[in-house]
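Homework help board

Subject: predicted structure for assignment chain

Our instructor gave us this sequence and asked us to write out the predicted structure in token form, then describe one feature. I got the tokens but I'm not sure how to describe them. Can anyone check?
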Amino acid sequence: MQETSKQSLLSNLTFQILIAMLFGGILGIIIHNNLTEEGAKEFSGYIKLLATVFIRLVQMIISPLVFSTLVVGIAKLGDIKAVGRIGGKAMAWFFTASFVSLLIGMFWVNVLTPGDGLNLSNIDLKAASEVTEKTQVFSAQNFIEHIIPKSIVEAMAGNEILQIVIFSIFFGLAAAAIGDNSKPVVNALDKLSHIVLKMVNYVMKFAPIGVFGAIAGVFAIRDFGDLLMTYAKFFGSFMVGITTLWVILVAVGFLFLRSKMSLLLKRITSPIVIAFSTTSSEAVFPKLTEELERFGVKDRIVSFMLPLGYSFNLDGSMMYMTFASIFIAQAYGIHLDLPTQFTMLFVLMLTSKGIAGVPRASLVVVAATCGMFKIPIEGIALILPIDHFCDMFRSGTNVLGNALATSVVGKWEKED
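My token output:
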């Protein structure tokens, strides 16, 4: 009996990932302390390939999973009214959550003022060039061009989730309108979604190896102790903000889901840990889909809500955006009055929706916003050294926020 219990523990994905994080961190620290800087960078490049392989394995199944599950879900809903009802609830939740997340970031960066008195003499401006090159000034044209696909093949090739969602909604509504004639296509896509979900089980077996590579690669080239000393006030203030957001999200979860919130947290622990360690909430999209269906949310709700959430409901990233933008202003001694900060908050809410899927999206949005408010864009170089560790917490929070939104809307639909 005891042996069976041990085997069960060892086979638990969350346990395996935590062990992988521990050993990855230990190996990374050993490499960092015993190799030259050049040798450590070379090691990091090679070991990170394990994480790259895992994330690419996940990415290769996101497009077919989103398309097949969303079309089948909408076809099962049966009419435009049902899609509009669920979509309305989803967007109301997303924009409320985004506003609260942005407000938390704005509140704590003003209370704790982590940017005041910062030494700007040692910042590496070259490090910011990769991000600033991707920065675009927000406009309605950029937003529309980003969300409306000109080719579904191109959208799928680029894993543009929001564009795939737009196409899938039209496809699903058309399939529902045709009725019985579309059943062969809908049934085929239903079978495809089950096959892809089976693939998820195979891919997730590689998760601990990917996590090991990601953590070892980071700790091999970065001295977390030194970084924490240098950025203690910034990172500590950020952690206060992200903890506040977690407390609010969990409290809201218990308010709407009651005792089932504990079961939800248990279900999504593994996806949160994977997102945290790989700094990629996208990496757990298929696994999160599976866990939410096991939790009891109807597949049609999950397939509709999650893709939208990954584009519109990134709570951790939203909290970071106001926090980082105002932090940079503080560091440069630029005073932003309250009306200006609220204007920035609403600009961030809009610009963040039009840039989903862009690498290091949070930094790109922060850079664009700084430019709009006459804050030096090169100021993002201040936060780049510590950004990876902040990104860990952002990614995990994004997973919690989307799991909660999907579960609550699923509960509302059962009650209607």
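Reply (TA_rk): Your tokens look well-formed. For the description, you could write something like this. Residues 1-10 have pLDDT under 50 and may be disordered. That's the kind of observation they're looking for.
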